[in-house]
Amino acid sequence: MTLPEWFIFFLVVQVVHFLATWKLYVKAGRQAWEAAVPVYNAVILMKIINRPWWWVILIFIPVINIIMIPIIWVETIRSFGQNSTKDTLLVLVTLGFYIFYVNYALDVTHIADRSLKPRTGAGEWTSSILFAIVAATVVHTYFMQPYTIPTGSLEKTLLVGDFLFVSKFHYGARIPMTTVSLPMVHDSVPLTKKKSYFKKPQLPYMRIPGLQKIKRNDIVVFSWPADTVVQFFKKSKGVIKPIDKKSNYVKRCVAIPGDTLSLVNGYVHINGVKTVLPERAKPLYKHLVTLKGELNNSTLDLFGRDYYGGSVVKIPNNIMIKERTAELIEKRAYLEYIKKDSSYTYFTGGVENNQVAKYLNISQANNMVLFNMTEKEAIERKNNPQIVDIQRHIIKEKTTRVFPQNNSFAANEDNMASLYIPEEGKTIGITTQNIPLYKRIIEVYEGREIGLANKITTRGTEVLLNGTPIKEYTFKQDYYWMMGDNRHNSEDSRFWGFVPFNHVVGKPVFVFFSKDGSKNMSSLDWVRWDRVFTTVGGDGEPKSYLLYFLIVLAGYFGYSYVKKRKKANTPE
User: Ramachandran region of residue 466, left (φ > 0), alpha (ψ -120 to 50) or beta?
Assistant: First the structure.
C-alpha cells in the first residue's frame, strides 16, 4: 500500500471507531466529538479504560499493534461491565465489531474505578504472557535481536554455533513493513514451518535514524536480496517474500556506496588499493595440499574437519575434457582446473569427486587435497612432516556463475573486474554494456519492491526504461557489497550482487553463547567458553567477559537478598 492508501485506510478506521464508540465516550463522561479526533481519541480511550497513556504508542507500532488492539477491545467492553467469557470471545471473533452491539443495543454503565487485576489465575497468566511478548517484541524489533550463525561463511571470524546479539539501533531500526505477522518469529512458525505472515497490507519502507553509518569491513546482518527461500536451506523456485521476511544473512561489508571494487587473486581492492582487513578478520582461502601419504584421519584432524575442502581428481593429458563438457554438465558436474604436469591435469569437481572420477574412468589423486585455511595457517603447516607442499589455489577460469551472470562480465570468485557500488543521489551513465550490472537495482530494488513497475529493455545500442530511452540513472538509495571471510565457501555478493540499504537489519555486537556441534554434549567440551560473552568488534583476540558478568550477577542477587532480609527485619 502507498502512503495515500494508508492515509485513507487510517481515516476509515477513525470513522469506524467513532461510530462504534461515541455513545460509550458519552457514558464515560466525555464528549462525543472526542471519539472522532485521530490519536486524541486513543488518549481519551486510555483514560476511559483506566490504562496508561503510553499504550497509545503501542497501538501504532507495527506487529505489536496486532497484540495490543485485541487487548484494547476486551478492555473497552470490560470497562462497561461486559466481563463474561462469552463477551470476550464475541469481541475477539468479530474483530472488535461486537463493540457496536454494546454501544447501541445495551444499556451499559461506565465503571470508572474498575479493578485491573485479573479475576482468575489463568487470566493473570494470560495477561503476564501477553505483555511479556509485547516487551520482547519491542526489544527484538527496535533494539537488539538474537541471531544464530548457521553456516561457515564467516569462519574463522564468526563460527557456526555462535549466538549473537544484533544491534538494531547502530544503523537505525527498520520499521516492520509486514503489518500482519506473528511476533517473535521470522518467516515461518516454529515446528510447523508454515508461513508466519500475510504479504498484504505492507507499510512503505521507513527506518529510525541510526547512530552510525555502515563502515567498510563492518560485519552486517541483512535480508538476503535474492531470497527464494521458503525455509532456510530449502530453496523453492519463484518465491517472493516481503523485504523484512527474507532470510537473514551475515557477511562482511567489503565495499560501501561510492566505492569502486575489484577482486584480484582473491584479495579485495577498493579504488585500486588492496584492502587491509581488521585484526580479527581471518579470511580463509582454498589451498592445495600435497601429502606424503594418502588422506587419512590424522590429516583431517591436522587441518580441522570443519574446513575440509575436497579432494582432487587427476586426468591423463590424453583425455579430451572439453569434448565431454556437455556430458559433464548433464551429470550436474564441472571441473575446476588446479595445475598440470607432464602426465596429468589436476582438477577439483563440482560434485563429489569420486563420482566425476568414476564417470570419466579416471582416478583420484589421493595425496592431493583442497582445504580452506588462512594464509598464516598455511605457512605454519608447511613444516609438518605429513605435508610435502601447500600452495594457495587461485581460481583463474572465468564463468558466468558469478554476478551478473552475463557473458560480458564473465569472472570468478577470485577475480572480478572493477565495479562501481551505487550511492544514493549519484547519477551514472547507462549503456547496453553496463546495464546488466544495474538492471536488478532499477527493476526490483527501486522498482517492484517500492511499488513501481520498472522494466528495462534494450533496442540496438539504446537502453529503455519502461519503453523510454535513458542514458543515465540516479540511484534512490545506498548499496553495499557483502562477502564472507570463508572466501571459497560463501554465497555472497559475488553471486547475487548488491545489497540495498533497505535490506540492512543490524550490526552484530556480542557473542552471548557459542557451541561446537562436532563435540559430544554429554560433557562441557561442546561449549566454547572462550567465546561466551565476547564482543564481535575490537582489536586483538576476542576476550570473554563471562567472569565479569557472573560477578555482577552474583553482586546483584546478593544485594537483593540483603535488602529483602533487612526489609523483613525492620519493624513497621
Answer: left
Closest by CA position to 68, among listed 138, 11, 16: 138
Contact 446, 476 (CB under 8 A): yes
Residue 240 corresponds to which cell in the numbers above?
Answer: 517472493
Q: Which three cell numbers, joined as nine digits, stand for 27?
A: 457514558
3-state secondary structure at position 118: coil
Could you tell me the sign of the dihedral formed by the alpha carbons of 421, 424, 429, 434, in that order? positive
Least Cα distance to 283 among 489, 97, 548 occurs for 489
Phi, psi values for residue 535, rounded to 5°: -85, 150
* DSSP sequence for 315-341: EETTS-SGGGHHHHHHTT--EEEEEE-
Distance of alpha carbon 346 from the chain centroid = 38
pTM of the predicted model as reported, rounded to 2 decimal places: 0.84
- Residues 435 and 457: beta-carbon distance below 8 Å: no
Q: What b/e string do you get for 174-201 counting C-beta neighbours within 10 Å, with b at 16 or more?
A: bbbbbbebbbeebbbeeeeeebbbeeee
DSSP alpha helix (H) spans, 28-120: 40-48, 55-59, 64-78, 85-93, 98-105
The phi and psi torsions of 534 (rounded to 5 degrees) equal -115, 155
Q: What is the mean pLDDT of each run of 10 residues along the chain (572 residues)?
A: 77 91 92 92 92 89 86 90 86 91 91 75 69 85 88 83 91 90 82 82 89 94 81 58 89 96 95 92 89 79 64 76 57 72 79 61 76 89 88 87 90 93 96 94 91 91 94 96 91 94 94 81 79 84 84 88 76 60
- Structural contact between residues 99 and 77, judged by C-beta atoms closer than 8 angstroms: yes
Cα–Cα distance measured from residue 438 to residue 24, given in angstroms and rounded to the nearest whole number: 57
Q: Taking the CB of residue 159, how many other CB atoms lie within 10 A of it?
A: 18
Could you say which DSSP state residue 208 is in?
Answer: P
Query: Judging by DSSP bridges, how do beta strands 308-316 and 234-235 pair with one another?
Result: unpaired
Separation between Cα atoms, residue 404 and residue 241, nearest integer Å: 21
Look up residue 261 and give its three cell numbers: 571494487
Cα(263)–Cα(270) distance, integer angstroms: 9
CA-atom Rg of the chain in angstroms? 30
CA distances to 165, 508, 530, 535 from 512, in Å: 7, 11, 11, 9
